[in-house]
Amino acid sequence: MQTQTLETPSMNVFEQLESEVRSYCRNFRTVFHKAQNAKLWDTKEREYIDFFAGAGALNYGHNNRKIRDKLIAYLLEDGVTHSLDMATHAKEQFLSQFHEVIMKPRGWDYKVMFPGPTGTNAVESALKIARKVTGRTTVISFTNAFHGMTLGSLAVTGNAFKRKGAGMALTHSVFMPYDGYFGEAVDTIQYMEKLLDDPGSGVPLPAAIIVEAVQGEGGLNVASDTWLQRLERLCHQKGILLILDDIQMGCGRTGPFFSFESSGIEPDLICLSKSIGGYGLPLALTLIKPELDVWKPGEHNGTFRGNNLGFVGASEALDYWKTGGFREQIEDKANRITASLERMMERQPALHGTLRGKGMIQGIAFEQPGMAERLCELAFASGLILETSGPCSEVAKLMPPLTIENSTLEQGLQILEHCYNQLAEEAASA
Ligand SMILES: Cc1ncc(COP(=O)(O)O)c(C=O)c1O
User: Fold this and answer.
1) Is the CB of 55 inside a 6 Å radius of any atom of ligand 1?
2) Nearest atom in ligand 1 to 248's CA
């Protein structure tokens, strides 16, 4: 057992030397030192349960022992670490494993592109291909979408604060209402169809539509299977490419490997990053339908595309998907989370919390501003790390590693319930 102390590590070095742009270290004010699966320890030995999982980059937990052993062995045998996009054994193994474990069982045929090793790079590359293939420039994205921080990705991202950071006009994008944006009564696919059919609508025929099946940063909004199917049909009818951004929701976050699988759609382009590297190592993939792979050699380059440690981590992580057992475990844990959140909300009706999300990304949405932030603050003070989501930070979002032990999950949920009750007391006395 770690001894808990009340001492807080100093943040002086970060405050003096690091840019003002830093964000997570402002909310989680401590200096982290060690981590194992769903737990983190700071330099004062204080223990934290991680319901944040590197914003979705740590689906297989911190320092996953199996993956770590493979990485150490690779390093000790002087395996190539950096290779641009040269052919390496590590890349060969990853491509074969990805084909065998992910593509083949689904009967899918996609070419794998390695853009620079970040999510935004996968999105940029998908946008470029769509424009190159169709010869059109506009891309449709959705209200509350989040696709990354570089200019192309930011242009299809909804958040006003993040967009303002660009310091210039973000162009060639049109925003449409996501599933449920106007409530259940409004059919947003029909709305989009009408605008695209009407030469007077001012909306040009786009090169692509980019969508998240579950919006992670945008407030845990879930698109229905029917909505996704109709979106795909609309794209096919009009010759628009469908880009599915599975950067945060992929690699099992919602249950199956891909978040959109239950809809049966087959997007033209799929963006993956975050947990694909297995160990929190930078890696990104753009999956391209073969007939759309129109790149000229080197047309979308990047120094760090050949992150071989990422390939080694990714290959080992795919072992989790060789059978259906991992998915069943995720579903079981997701049910525990749902049951626990429902109980908390039922016991404190005055907080008017509502359940959001799906699988192992669920959360509580609040009507009153500041409540989700306060809940995360109380949780952190009690040794639980979780962050907010949504355009007004109105959702407290739970995203533990998929590999979290049931006991740690229960422990974290108990802490959260305690904090939720505390929040209700504070609200009642305000
Ligand atoms: C859905 C989605 N797309 C793209 C990105 C951008 O990924 P990165 O931060 O690695 O550039 C994120 C990051 O949170 C994301 O959630």
Assistant:
1) yes
2) 16
> Cα–Cα distance between 384 and 378 in angstroms, integer?
9
Q: 């690779």: which residue's tokens?
A: 74
Mean pLDDT of the chain: 97
Work out the pLDDT band at 3, boundaries 50, 70, 90. Answer: very low
The amino acid sitting at 180 is G
CA of 146 to the centre of ligand 1 (A): 7
Distance 200 CA to ligand 1 centre (A): 34
- pLDDT tops 70 at residue 126: yes
Tens of pLDDT along 391-423? 999 999 999 999 999 999 999 999 999 999 999
Q: What SS3 class is residue 288?
A: strand
Q: Write the DSSP assignment of 19-66 as a string of letters.
A: -TT--HHHHS-S-EEEEEBTEEEETT--EEEESSHHHHT-TT-BT-HH
Centre of ligand 1 from the C-alpha of residue 160, in Å: 16
Interval 250-277 mean pLDDT? 98
Q: Is residue 249 over pLDDT 70?
A: yes
**Ligand 1 near 144 CB (within 6 A):** no
CA of 197 to the centre of ligand 1 (A): 32
Tell me what percent of the residues of the chain surpass a pLDDT of 90: 98
Residues 6 or more apart whose CB falls under 8 angstroms from that of 423 comprise 348, 351, 371, 374, 375, 378
pTM: 0.97
Q: Is 148 a pocket residue for ligand 1 (Cβ < 6 Å)?
A: yes
Does any ligand 1 atom lie closer than 6 A to the CB of residue 245?
yes
The answer on pLDDT for 353 being more than 80 is yes
Task: Looking at the CA of residue 118, tell me the nearest atom of ligand 1.
Answer: 10
Whole-number Å distance, alpha carbon 24 to ligand 1 midpoint, is 15
Q: Is 146's C-beta closer than 6 angstroms to any atom of ligand 1?
A: yes
68, 36 Cβ separation under 8 angstroms: no
> Is the CA virtual torsion 219, 223, 228, 234 positive or negative?
negative
Edge to edge, the sheet with strand 173-176 lists 111-113, 285-288, 269-272, 241-245, 208-211, 139-142, 173-176
Q: Is 212 in the pocket of ligand 1 (CB under 6 A)?
A: yes
CA of 119 to the centre of ligand 1 (A): 5
430 pLDDT band (50/70/90 cuts)? confident
**HSE, side-chain direction, 13 A CA sphere, residue 32:** 20
User: Is pLDDT larger for residue 5 or for residue 16?
Assistant: 16
